[in-house]
Write a structure and sequence with these properties.
The complex is a heterodimer of chains A (151) and B (414). Chain A has 151 residues and is α+β, with helices and mostly antiparallel strands. Chain A is built from 7 helices and 3 strands; from the N terminus they run ααβββααααα. Chain A has a domain of 104 residues: Sufe protein. Chain: A. The relative contact order of chain A is 0.21. The chains are: A alpha+beta (151), B alpha/beta (414). At the A-B interface, α2 of A face α12 of B.
């Protein structure tokens, strides 16, 4: 099921071959990850503004009204600081918290290569088709921000 | 009540389906009627003179008749569409043709996107202006504002009968009076009301009434556009092609009679037959009985939900302001939206889904309303004739579970 839409979301790319309906109780391993997600949600990392950032970008997920503004500071092609502001569901805010940790010290080139799998791995929990939009909002914001800043 | 009539619910006994406002489950009689059509008399309608085409045509026309009687209308006044959204789009285009710069379209702040977006497009092309009837702090329409907003510039009033978020039942009859007094037409979006209560177009005195089949035990892909005969007679078709013409020459065409002049192309035959079976199913139980049953269930849910600390119901708190022995839904219907302090609606939905409880979360196609109420979303539980009080108890348990997981009181959203 390939989408012809060039704007096809990361979610669609991910689900081309991998579609799963998530329901039922969480496994023990997932329970542990869930704690981690809740921890990031309640005590988010990098939730602040960067006043002299290289670029910032705002995006939102109309599905549940999640909102994320990313602030990125780069030096010689390297991300030296990343932060975010926003509000929304636990998945969207936790993944922004995790992603901003993850991309610090990455090169822009590496950041451009990040895909849905990286986010799902960070979260470590099965994400349903619908909720993938929440999980991937931060990545979409990052990549569109990079594109817009022409970096 | 009758949950055994619904094969999906029978097969999934642990499923607590509380999203009937989005779409209802289907009774076996509806599924069987559509199967029966495809297995035994599948043919196009209004075309063949052979037996199975005759059978299909009779069934298709009878579906109009059954739906007409169901809402107190006549066969000529029932147009089948793809659903409420398509009905509203058709009306926007057809009525929009007569609008001039400065004419006004009056909607309400609690409308579904399907009753806002088509009008915005028409307003853009005609220069007409959209006015919104505001809602009050108790989530009802501000009728004194409505009286001021509906003026001689108003040409169309289009308002939902029951809000799909707030559950509020709007006084269509009163609005119809205001609209008619200034020579405007009134459209009632009855997507949420026709499935739940006896709706009669004569009592409402609306000019047009629109609803969907799939929210009332029928299949998806079919909806209804009711219009007063004298209005439909003077309206141009929405779509053109086969089935809706009287005569076609290379130069021009004339239209066939009501309601077929509004149904171009091969219609949704199986879906119409399914819708007919759905109406017959609802009638076999009796709309009054359904309304009473849902009234009790909603009453029970409102009591249980409003007792939960940290839960806020977004909508009228009571089914009826006055003492209501008849159990007729007067002020609100069986849609209950709520928020939980410190937990995003999507997270509530996720936890509930793990418990096999299906609710809707988000803005429910009413972004402007949510923005107005300063909410980024709500959790919505909606009930139908197959739901039970035990299921409401499970919902309450699920909410407690969500609060436990998120230890809600400790979260401070920054």
């Amino acid at each position: 099921m390939k989408s012809n839409n060039p704007e096809a979301t990361l979610v669609e790319t991910y689900f081309e071959n991998k579609y799963e309906i998530v329901s039922g109780k969480l496994s023990e391993e997932e329970e542990l990850y869930k704690e981690n997600i809740l921890d990031h949600y309640k005590n988010p990392h990098n939730k602040r503004k960067i006043s002299h950032c290289t670029f910032n970008h705002k995006d939102f997920n109309p599905l549940c009204g999640d909102e994320i503004t990313l602030f990125i500071k780069t030096e010689q092609g390297k991300i030296i600081d990343a932060a975010f502001e926003g509000n929304g569901c636990a998945i969207s805010q936790a993944s922004a918290s995790m992603l901003t940790d993850h991309i610090k010290k990455m090169s822009l080139e590496q950041a451009k290569q990040l895909g849905p799998w990286d986010i799902f791995n960070l979260l470590g929990i099965r994400i349903s088709h619908t909720r993938s939009k929440c999980a991937l909002l931060c990545l979409k914001t990052l990549q569109e921000g990079i594109k817009e800043a022409k970096l | 009540m009758n949950s055994t009539d619904f094969p999906l619910l029978e097969k999934n006994k642990s499923l607590v389906y509380l999203d009937s406002s989005a779409t209802s489950q289907k009774p076996s009689s509806v599924i069987k009627s559509m199967n029966d059509f495809y297995l035994n008399y599948n043919a196009n309608v209004h075309r063949g003179i052979y037996t199975i085409s005759e059978e299909a045509t009779i069934a298709y026309e009878k579906a109009h008749e059954v739906v007409a009687q169901f809402i107190g209308a006549e066969l000529e006044e029932i147009i089948f569409t793809r659903g409420t959204t398509e009905s509203l789009n058709f009306l926007a285009v057809a009525l929009g043709k007569k609008l001039k710069v400065g004419d006004e379209i009056v909607l309400s702040e609690m409308e579904h996107h399907s009753n806002i977006v088509p009008w915005q497009q028409i307003a853009k092309t005609t220069g007409a202006v959209i006015k919104y009837i505001p809602i009050t702090s108790d989530y009802t329409l501000n009728m004194s504002d409505a009286q001021k907003i509906i003026s001689y510039r108003t040409k169309i009033v289009s308002v939902t009968h029951i809000s799909n978020v707030l559950g509020t039942i709007n006084p269509i009859t009163e609005l119809a009076q205001m609209a008619h007094a200034v020579g405007a037409v009134i459209i009632a979006d009855a997507a949420q009301s026709v499935p739940h209560m006896k709706v009669n177009v004569k009592d409402l005195n609306c000019d047009f009434l629109v609803f969907s089949g799939h929210k009332m035990c029928g299949p998806t892909g079919i909806g209804v556009l009711y219009g007063k005969k004298e209005l439909l007679q003077n309206m141009e078709p929405f779509q053109f092609g086969g089935g809706m013409i009287q005569e076609v020459t290379f130069e021009d065409s004339t239209w066939t009679e009501l309601p077929w002049k509004f149904e171009a192309g091969t219609p949704m035959i199986a879906e119409a037959i399914g819708l007919m079976a759905a109406v017959e199913y609802l009638q076999s139980i009796g709309m009054e009985n359904i309304e009473k049953y849902i009234y009790d269930l909603t009453q029970y849910s409102l009591e249980k939900l409003s007792a939960i600390p940290g839960l806020t119901i977004i909508g009228p708190k009571k089914l009826s302001k006055e003492n209501n022995e008849s159990k007729k839904m007067k002020d609100r219907g069986a849609v209950i939206s709520f928020t939980l302090d410190g937990i995003h609606p999507h997270d509530v939905g996720e936890v509930l889904n793990r418990e096999r409880i299906a609710v809707r979360v988000g803005h429910h196609c009413t972004m402007p309303l949510h923005k107005l109420l300063k909410l980024n979303g709500t959790v919505r539980a909606s009930f139908y004739l197959y739901n039970t009080k035990e299921e409401v108890d499970k919902l309450v348990q699920g909410i407690f579970e969500a609060q436990k997981i998120f230890q809600a009181e400790k979260i401070t959203q920054k």
